[in-house]
Design brief:
- The protein is mainly alpha-helical and 338 residues long.
- The chain folds into two domains: 172 residues, Cytochrome c-like domain (Cytochrome Bc1 Complex, Chain D, domain 2, Orthogonal Bundle), CATH 1.10.760; 142 residues, Cytochrome c-like domain (Cytochrome Bc1 Complex, Chain D, domain 2, Orthogonal Bundle).
- Helices cover 38% and strands 2% of the residues.
- The protein is built from 14 helices and two strands; from the N terminus they run H-H-H-H-H-H-H-H-H-H-E-H-E-H-H-H.
- The protein has a two-stranded antiparallel sheet.
- Helix 3 crosses helix 8 and helix 5 packs across helix 8.
- The N and C termini lie far apart (55 Å).
Length: 338
């Protein structure tokens, strides 16, 4: 009853302000719960793929392959190399490094919760985490293998046949590139990291601090949530980086135009998810900004044409901190310990 009266009061104040040309907005300390529920959704317990195949044998195989560096041409790279448990499944570098110290074009984003994205890679060139895993085997700046037959031969020589047979019972050819991608992808679908923000969306009002609630209010009011929405607060659309002002392009990265060959896709990238963002610097596709506060300012300026105060930056940071979840144990614990 009291909340209803407060809502009516705020509505009347806003109406009065509109009638008399007075700028008005609800106090950011008010619960932005209903508005948040309309823009965001909590993480599911699992990130199951299209066929919902999440068998223990398949997950175990994917986890084993995830940490195995022997599948790269020089024995130095595994999936973990760019997605370290101690760095919330990133590598802490501006741009990822693959076999023979080859520099990748872009920053390695976190794998936590990443399977929910509508596409994979900054330019959306991969359909899913399974597709990304499969193609990484022959990527020149990832595993570096010349072709898939050489990978199959290597897997067999390393004694993986029984693991694949168990994970893919009844298959006449258990060891194949699609099955590699499937196993890795299914393991990555277990990497869910719920945060205080999820508890808040489920109705636990005290899960967010007052500062975080103010930041959430500002995040929605400014327009950040127009791109960073949904379950992941991003990862579900493309956007041009630099809507209101040009962003220096020091790497020659064409963005999605590299895939589509369309001039209109220059500097267009997949909107990154913001979950665990506080824990995963450096930021942007080229890893050009190390400090989160600076990244917040850059985004406000080039995407929204807004200059932020110290208080606003602090509030937004507090909200982003509420998106931090724990690293799942299956990623952080060494395979050999089991």
């Amino acid at each position: 009853m009291i909340k209803n009266h407060l809502r009516v009061t705020y509505f009347l104040l806003a109406l009065f302000a509109l009638m008399f040309g007075i700028e008005y907005s609800a106090d950011a300390s008010d619960e932005p719960f209903e508005a948040a529920r309309a823009r965001f959704s909590p993480l599911p317990e699992t990130l199951a793929g299209p066929d919902d195949s999440m068998s223990p044998a398949l997950i175990a195989l994917g986890r084993k392959l995830f940490f195995d560096k022997r599948l790269s041409t020089d024995g130095t790279v595994s999936c973990e190399t760019c997605h370290l448990p101690g760095l919330h499944a990133t590598d802490g570098r501006s741009r990822a490094i693959g076999v023979e110290n080859r520099l990748n074009l872009r920053n390695a984003p976190t794998l936590l919760n990443a399977a929910l994205q509508f596409r994979v890679h900054w330019d959306g060139s991969r359909e899913s985490v399974e597709d990304q895993a499969k193609q990484s085997l022959i990527g020149p700046t990832s595993f570096g293998n010349p072709d898939y037959p050489s990978v199959i031969a290597k897997l067999k020589s390393l004694g993986y046949e029984k693991d694949f047979q168990k994970a893919f019972p009844g298959s006449p050819e258990p060891i194949q590139p699609d099955h590699w991608g499937k196993a890795i992808g299914v393991f990555e679908r277990t990497l869910v990291s719920p945060s205080p923000f999820d508890a808040y969306l489920k109705g636990t009002m005290g899960a967010l601090s007052d500062s975080a609630k103010k930041g959430l209010h500002l995040f929605m009011e400014m327009g950040c949530a127009n791109c960073h929405d949904g379950t992941l607060l991003g990862g579900m659309r493309y956007a041009k980086f630099g809507l209101f002002s040009d962003v220096p392009n020091t790497t020659g990265d064409e963005g999605r135009a590299r895939v589509t060959k369309s001039p209109s896709d220059q500097n267009v990238f997949k909107v990154p998810q913001l979950r665990n963002v506080v824990m995963t610097p450096p930021y942007f596709h080229d890893g050009s900004v190390e400090d989160l506060d600076q990244a917040i300012r850059v985004m406000a300026k080039v995407q929204l044409n807004k200059e932020l105060t110290l208080v606003e930056v602090g509030a937004l940071r507090s909200f982003l901190e509420s998106l931090t979840g724990p690293v799942p144990s299956q990623l952080s614990a060494p395979v050999e310990s089991e």
